[in-house]
Every structure is written in C-alpha cells, then in structure tokens.
Amino acid sequence: MVAGLSTFHSPADDRLAGVPAALADLVNNDGADILATAYAPKDEFHASSDAFVALLGADKAAGRFVPPTTEGDHDWMKQPLPGSVFSTAEQKCLATAIYFEARGEEVRGQAAVAQVILNRVRNPAYPASVCKVVYQNENWTNRCQFSFACDGIPDDIVDRRAYLLAKEVAMAVTGGKIFLPEVASSTHYNATYVSPRWARSMERMTQIGSHIFYRTFAGGWS
User: Fold this and answer.
1) Is the pTM here over 0.90, yes or no?
2) What does each C-alpha distance from 17 to 5, 30, 173, 219 come to in angstroms?
3) DSSP string over 22-33
4) CB-based burial label for 23 (10 Å; 0-12, 13-18, 19+)
C-alpha cells in the first residue's frame, strides 16, 4: 500500500507544485524525490520502491533526493532514503511522531523533527525504517529518543487539523522538498527545558523553537 496525499501529485519541475501554503516558505528544492512526484490513478499521490523506479526505466539512483552535505556531515547522508519510507505505514509513523513531538512548534520546527528521524533512517547505526526508528526502545520508560513513544500515555490524536499538517510536513521532508541546512545531519534533539548528559558529547547545530538539535562527531549514535 502507498501513501495517499493529494497535494503531492504534480510534476517535479514546478518548485511549489502541490505544496500547501503553510509549507511554501520552507521549500528549497526545485525537484522532489522521483518516488514522491509520479502520477497515479485518480490523481492520488503515488510512491513505491525499486519496482516503480524500474517501471520508469530509470537508474536506481536517478531522480532520488540526496541531501546537500557540508563540512562535518557524514557519508551516510549521501544516500537516498529507502523507497519504503513513502509507504502508508511509514508516513503514518512519521506524521505521528511530528504530531506528538512538535505539533506546538512552527512548521520549521516540525520539519526539523522529521529531518532528524529521516537522518536516522539513513544512518546505518539505526534501523532503516521510519517506524522502527520512531519506536526504537519504546519499552524504556521515559528513556527513548522520541518521548511520546515511551511515556506510557495513550497516543490519541485529538487535533485533526494539526495531524493533517503533520502529514503534509512528513511527505514534504521525505520527498526532499524541504531540507533544513541548519539541522543538516543531526540525529538528536532535546527540549530546551532539559539538559541531557549525552548532549555534551555532540555538536550543537541549532535551536528551532523549543528544541535544540545535535550532530554526532563520529557519525554513529554518539
């Protein structure tokens, strides 16, 4: 099954095609990932993995979004995300994480959280799956990276409008329409009101809203 998101059914050569107004100011990539821009029946968003790329007769890497890297970034950033991240299940996990971790943030802050999660998917030190990254160590009460996953509180979505925005952010960042250079290859963040010990061993990249983002020096977990 593939994710259905009607706003991402336009050709990739239009920078803002299909992008909601709330996200438009953050778009900084002229063409999204090929897996996020193809037409599908009934004008629905279509994405799949290698089979769809083969159907287009394209090279596996052709048209895939690879983040721009700068000094200090890690080699794993030079790889496209697995095609499976566009699936309905993976997008649901990403949108859910954005909703619970950052729905009170501006759109940039929500995109930053999404970028961290997807950076982990690229990083071989973590699972190559959005859902597995988001719920990694969920049985460690109040000690996992994404606190909503291990705080013991039911994950009930009560603000549908905020969740719909989270879905839009999830797809825009996954598809490469939005990439925040100030977050870069960050794989960690914390709220400004806490001071975790692990943060002292990492490079502080930026603060966006109520979250501080960090990049590891070695490229792995720490």
Assistant:
1) no
2) 13, 10, 15, 34
3) HHHTT---SS--
4) buried
